[in-house]
C-alpha cells in the first residue's frame, strides 16, 4: 500500500535553519510516533555532539575503528572461504547433503 506524503517547508526564525515537515497521510499513529521519537533522538544527539567536541572525537574514532575492524573481518573471512571447498563450508554449517557436486 502506498502512502501519500505531504511535505511542507518552514523556516525557523530563531535559528534560520530550514525545517522540513513531513505529514504522512494514511499512515498509522504508531508509525508517526516512532518517526517523531527517532527525529527527536537524532536532534538531541546532534545538540550533544555540537556542545561537546570531545564526544565528537570519540565518536569519530569509534566509527573509524568499527569500519577498520569490519574490513579486517571481511578480508579474513574471504581468505578463509577461499581455502575451503563448497562441500566443506556446507558441512561446517551443518548442511551435510551428499548430493552436492
Automatic annotation (TrEMBL):
<keyword id="KW-0175">Coiled coil</keyword>
<feature type="transmembrane region" description="Helical">
    <location>
        <begin position="57"/>
        <end position="75"/>
    </location>
</feature>
<protein>
    <submittedName>
        <fullName>GOLGIN-84</fullName>
    </submittedName>
</protein>
<dbReference type="GO" id="GO:0031985">
    <property type="term" value="C:Golgi cisterna"/>
</dbReference>
<dbReference type="GO" id="GO:0000139">
    <property type="term" value="C:Golgi membrane"/>
</dbReference>
<dbReference type="GO" id="GO:0007030">
    <property type="term" value="P:Golgi organization"/>
</dbReference>
<dbReference type="InterPro" id="IPR019177">
    <property type="entry name" value="Golgin_subfamily_A_member_5"/>
</dbReference>
<feature type="transmembrane region" description="Helical">
    <location>
        <begin position="6"/>
        <end position="27"/>
    </location>
</feature>
<dbReference type="Pfam" id="PF09787">
    <property type="entry name" value="Golgin_A5"/>
</dbReference>
<dbReference type="GO" id="GO:0000301">
    <property type="term" value="P:retrograde transport, vesicle recycling within Golgi"/>
</dbReference>
<keyword id="KW-0812">Transmembrane</keyword>
<keyword id="KW-1133">Transmembrane helix</keyword>
<keyword id="KW-0333">Golgi apparatus</keyword>
<keyword id="KW-0472">Membrane</keyword>
Amino acid at each position: 500500500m502506498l502512502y501519500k506524503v505531504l511535505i511542507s517547508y518552514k523556516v525557523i526564525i530563531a535559528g534560520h535553519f530550514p525545517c522540513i515537515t513531513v505529514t504522512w497521510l494514511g499512515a498509522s499513529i504508531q508509525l508517526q510516533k516512532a518517526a517523531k521519537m527517532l527525529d527527536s533522538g537524532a536532534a538531541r544527539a546532534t545538540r550533544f555532539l555540537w556542545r561537546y567536541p570531545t564526544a565528537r572525537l570519540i565518536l569519530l574514532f569509534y566509527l573509524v575503528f568499527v569500519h577498520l575492524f569490519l574490513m579486517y573481518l571481511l578480508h579474513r573471512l574471504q581468505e578463509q572461504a577461499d581455502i575451503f571447498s563448497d562441500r566443506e563450508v556446507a558441512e561446517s554449517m551443518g548442511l551435510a547433503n551428499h548430493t552436492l557436486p
